[in-house]
Write a structure and sequence with these properties.
mainly alpha, Serine Threonine Protein Phosphatase 5, Tetratricopeptide repeat, disordered N terminus, TPR-like_helical_dom_sf
Length: 183
């Protein structure tokens, strides 16, 4: 539970004003970096991983045969093979939020919602700011008819994605489609 703010004598900016100041500050930082030759090329996006790669060893994951087999099985939509490979991987690497997110994705696509929620929950326990896990658990909540929980994760993505991100956009569109279909 969040503690109430301590009263102060100076006015506090509204959330939208704070966001505007954050945008202004980041824009200034970007301009200064360009001015002083510190190119700020965006990091490549990974389809289901978190772009800050907070999981255990991004390159080690890519080189691991179980993780690689899990990714390939997902690409082939062989959900059970993905589950088998990723389960083996997370047994050895229990701190990989990305792997748990992939595992949740495979479980969800096989219709194993309880197992999917457990995997997404583990990914978010490891990395509470994992954008991919917030998106996919939100989609799982929509598939199980829980709009309120999906909107909680959409709200979290809105906080995490200051300038917007693919995960926020995808979940926002899924929520809108769900509302249109169910209203």
């Amino acid at each position: 539970m969040r503690q109430p703010p301590i009263p102060s004598r100076r006015p506090v900016a509204a959330p939208s004003a704070r966001r505007a100041f954050a945008v202004l500050g980041l824009s200034l930082a970007f301009a200064l970096a360009l001015l002083f030759g510190q190119g700020m090329a965006p990091a490549p996006a990974s389809a289901m991983g978190n772009d800050n790669n907070s999981s255990s060893g991004g390159q080690a994951m890519a080189a691991d045969p179980d993780f690689t087999a899990g990714q390939k099985a997902i690409e082939m939509k062989d959900w059970q093979a993905a589950i088998d490979a990723l389960t083996a991987y997370v047994r050895r690497e229990p701190n990989s939020a990305d792997a748990f997110n992939y595992l949740g994705y495979a479980q969800r696509n096989l219709g194993n919602y309880d197992a999917a929620f457990a995997a997404y929950g583990q990914a978010l326990k490891i990395d509470p700011d994992h954008k991919g896990a917030h998106e996919y658990v939100g989609e799982a909540y929509l598939q199980t008819g829980n709009l309120a929980k999906a909107e909680e994760h959409l709200s979290k993505l809105d906080e995490l994605c200051l300038f917007g991100c693919a995960e926020y956009t995808a979940l926002k569109e899924a929520v809108a489609a769900y509302k249109a279909k169910n209203s």
